[in-house]
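Dear U.,

For the methods section draft, I wanted the exact inputs and outputs in one place so we can describe them consistently. I've listed the two proteins in the order they'll appear in the manuscript figures. Please don't edit the token lines directly; just add comments below if something needs changing.

First protein:
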Amino acid sequence: MFHATGRIGRIPKEHLDRLLAFGRPVTFESGSRLFEEGHPARNFWLVEGGSVRLDVHVPGRHAAAVETLGSGELIGWSWLFPPYRWHLGAQAVGTVRALEFDAAAVRAECERDPDFGRAITLACAQVIAARLQASRLRLPDLYGPHASADDDSTRN
């Protein structure tokens, strides 16, 4: 059974259970890319075990880590908002076990049931706010005078 933590854990139980019914178990090996910035967002994931590093393309440098997420966390929100393209990239750090969701199916359920849709949208909005803050905190490391092209550490 999936144990939701963080912002996803705040979804009312009846809506969370309904969401989880759409999920299917998947495994990503260490180093696997879940998605690439700018590509279509057709799926999203809830991590059951392991860690996923979110990164952003920085021109002239390696992809820069924005945040590392673990068990119970949502991977991906771009699937919910047109044009349904990833705003970041994501890579497995070690083996990752997750539940994978078909974005179109969950969006259809959000349209069908506005209460469910509101709960999912609110949870994703909270995730977006947290990721925006993490990115904002990371900007001085990426673009400051002492930024290193090889620095991919994350801030807490």
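Second protein (the one for the lower panel):
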Amino acid sequence: MGVVQDVTGLPANDAGQRLADSGFRVAYAEGEGNEAAIGSVLRQEPEGDTNMPLGRLVTLTVNSPPDLTVPRIEDLSLERAKVNLTESGFRLGQVTEIDGTPTQTPEGRIISQDHQRASPPSAVRA
């Protein structure tokens, strides 16, 4: 018999390793948690501090929110871009002003955006 450690809140890899080192098998399931760090354990089954035979399975539900689509803000005004991004859970990041004459873009309009895949609140450069 062994005691299952409470590993909720830990990064999934660390949590799994701790349980494996204690003699338990580990399985992972995906879940979503608003306040938890991505990749951290949201819950476990059985719960921590449970006595059970060594070699039994402990399932860890890991925070793995879905990928997000960043709204297209090209050709929008800066103010409209801020609104669109905020409504989608993002924020406007670094803005670089350039001459839009070569692209025939009216002054004050966004001609390109750059973002990396991330979870909100993430910044989008324009």
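Candidate sentences for the figure legend, describing the second protein: The mean pLDDT is 86. Residues 77 and 109 are 5 Å apart (CA to CA).

Thanks,
Y.
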